[in-house]
Design goal:
This protein is of the alpha/beta class. It is 45% helix and 26% strand. The protein is built from five helices and five strands; from the N terminus they run H-E-H-E-E-E-H-H-E-H. It has a five-stranded mixed sheet with strand order 2-1-3-4-5, with helices on one face. Helix 2 links the parallel strand 1 and strand 2. Helix 2 runs parallel beside helix 5. The N and C termini lie far apart (56 Å).
């Protein structure tokens, strides 16, 4: 017959509420769009980028209500014989107009269209771009995705974390 000590039961029951607690909401919600000519490569690159973003810990990849949209484009540099020589990976970061922004610049009759256009042009919708070059192997491609997301985090997301 197995004996369970009171201490063991207390330790186990103390850990249950901690497991039931919800994780804090992500700091960043990101929509992801990957453009690659080859469907198989698109699936792989999407998976690599998504995994790296999730590994940051406070980024949720979702098309619903994103704070930012990442446009990822992979281009294959080919030799004259058709073999892949290198990959060029580009990640462009765009954001959305802030909530309530339009209410601050529009009047009811839209007679101020020139002013509206000028103010819309002042908002940084296109925010940043990261470009990297990788060798021709899958390992090189994974490495450049990893370093690109690390740069996105270091130069773009991390400063936003500290400013909040």
């Amino acid at each position: 017959m197995m004996r369970v000590s009171v201490v063991t039961v207390m330790l186990l029951s103390a850990g249950i509420p901690a497991l039931a607690q919800e994780a804090p909401p992500p700091a960043f919600r990101v929509a992801l769009e990957v453009t690659v000519r080859d469907d198989d490569a698109r699936e792989r690159v999407t998976m690599y980028v998504r995994n790296e973003l999730r590994a940051l810990g406070d980024v949720e990849v979702t098309p619903e209500n994103p704070d930012y949209r990442l446009y990822v484009m992979l281009t294959e540099m080919r030799s004259s014989s058709g073999g892949v020589v290198a990959y060029v990976l580009t990640i462009a970061v765009t954001s959305f107009f802030p909530d309530g922004y339009f209410a601050t610049i529009l009047n009811n009759d839209l007679l101020n269209s020139d002013e509206v256009i000028a103010r819309l042009e002042e908002v940084p919708v296109y925010e940043h771009q990261f470009v990297s070059l990788a060798g021709p192997t899958e390992a090189n491609l994974i490495e450049t995705v990893t370093s690109s997301i690390a740069n996105l985090d270091k130069y773009y997301l991390a400063p936003k974390r500290t400013s909040e």
